[in-house]
What does this fold into?
Amino acid sequence: MGEYVFDSFADEFGPEKVCYITEPGIGLKGIAVVDNTAAGPAIGGIRMAPDVTTEEVFRLARGMTWKNAMAGLSHGGGKSCIIADPKSPNKEALVRHFARGIANLTGYIPGPDMGTDETCMAWVRDEIGRSVGLSPVLGGIPLDEVGATGYGVAIAAEVIQDFTDVRLEGATVSIQGYGNVGQHAARFLVERGAILTIVADLDGTLYDPKGIDDVKLTAWMREKGGLTGFEGGELMPMDAFLDLECDIFVPAARPDVVDETTAHRLKCKVILEGANIPCTAGAEKILHERGILDVPDFVANAGGVICASVEYHGGTKKVAFDTIEEKVRENTAQVLEVCKRTGQMPRDAALGLAKQRVAEAMSYRRST
Ligand code: NAD
It folds into this structure.
């Protein structure tokens, strides 16, 4: 389960609760971290993976505290994990037992994450009456199907026009990771006049300076699971996207794909972080020094959690999209205004704003 590391990561913001859930009979080991609930009950996913540590769950929970505060939601941050293979034949039993283990953590609303999906969330809701990321038959808004996160990325792209010389009409776009986030980001950006010229996924980089048909490519990827064989464009080696010129780069695959080495190679003007932590801290510094505007993950990819929050409060898909538009637009502009005024890096500016919001929410709590 990992050593007791609470003291090494606790600070004035949290965590409020760290809970270990075990059930030896079925091999369940789980961890739930409720980091901060000053703004409201914490929303954060249940991850299912064989190698997660308490510290990692805490870091993810803290990330949700900042993301939910930055998005201006009435929710704090939390995260949990079930330490098991997501393909376990025992999955339903593990998820249901885990859900019962967190029943009394009423300040934590679980959602889907790596290794869990809307079926798992339906089991959780069945056990404890609360979860987000549900199927529409249970009142949910299928955020991956509707493209909530990709939509938020496109709204952030609209805002960068006020802070750079990039114009969406005619802007060339490169996307790494053509999955849920990447496909919808492409669709919403192309709808705004941008040209998708580069798509990188596990089997290569597809490049077409005349423009890749995003609708056809999405259908192809969903059927074939890879870029290979798609008609139109040239399939180049996997890391070729790093050296190809574009206006906007959307990393939408894995953490740390841009590091201190690759940050020097990128030839874009703007990065909109669709994935979580796609750039290392060192890489973000280099990008800043190179004059590349990098809108951080918890600002640019907040569409998903905003959608989950709207679902939790009983809203419709339309309300979710209106709320994503309003909040991502306002928050991206606010962060970039601070950067313009102070010269700070966007992540530092965003963190400063999120911390201020959480600290203010905490100031309203009973202190005696
Ligand atoms: P996904 O699994 O649907 O798509 C990921 C895509 O990236 C796949 O096509 C995969 O083949 C590709 N990929 C994986 N490793 C790669 C690599 N090394 N190089 C190039 N391509 C690679 O996942 P998703 O839901 O689109 O999420 C993508 C990222 O965005 C993750 O980091 C996730 O945590 C983050 N995120 C997702 C959401 C959401 O709403 N789904 C919200 C916020 C953040």
Notes: The chain has two domains: 6-136, 148-303+330-353. The chain is about 40% helix and 20% strand.
